[in-house]
Amino acid sequence: MSHARSEYEDFKRIAPDVYDLVLALGQLAANAGLDKQLLELVKLRASQINGCAFCVQHHVLLSERIGVPVDKLHLVAVWREAPIFSPRERAALAWTEALTCLPDGVSEEVYAEASGEFSETELTYLTSAVASINVWNRFGAAFRWTPAKRPVAAAAAAS
């Protein structure tokens, strides 16, 4: 089992300017009107690829709070094989993978699929969301931030 080298709260304390900048970058896509559920799927997929346990858990919990169907959360790692994802979600997930794993750049096919589903402005903001989560993943994976625990439901806690 790995152990945290430092924690998320330490990052906020040690480098508040960096924290604020990365946080602001991550909020731009939602502020520009991109669907929050779609953005959470993108952030979850990038976090899975990058092996950031803190970010995977954070985006699973956040996705649940904003109503992302549980089946999508369970299947996002294998989205190509799961018919539950819309063409727009598939394009966003393919774009996310291409930008997260860049050894060969972004193929014409992935670009065509993404630009067919997203306007030029939307694709630019989607790219900012992918860039942001990849930055968060670099910090979370490097410092092995401890994933949040699932909140205990009030009803379960009362029994």
TrEMBL record:
It comes from the Bacteria. Residues 16-98 form the Carboxymuconolactone decarboxylase-like domain. PANTHER family: 4-CARBOXYMUCONOLACTONE DECARBOXYLASE FAMILY PROTEIN (AFU_ORTHOLOGUE AFUA_6G11590), BLL7811 PROTEIN. NCBIfam families: ahpD_dom (TIGR00778). This is Carboxymuconolactone decarboxylase family protein. It comes from Bradyrhizobium diversitatis.
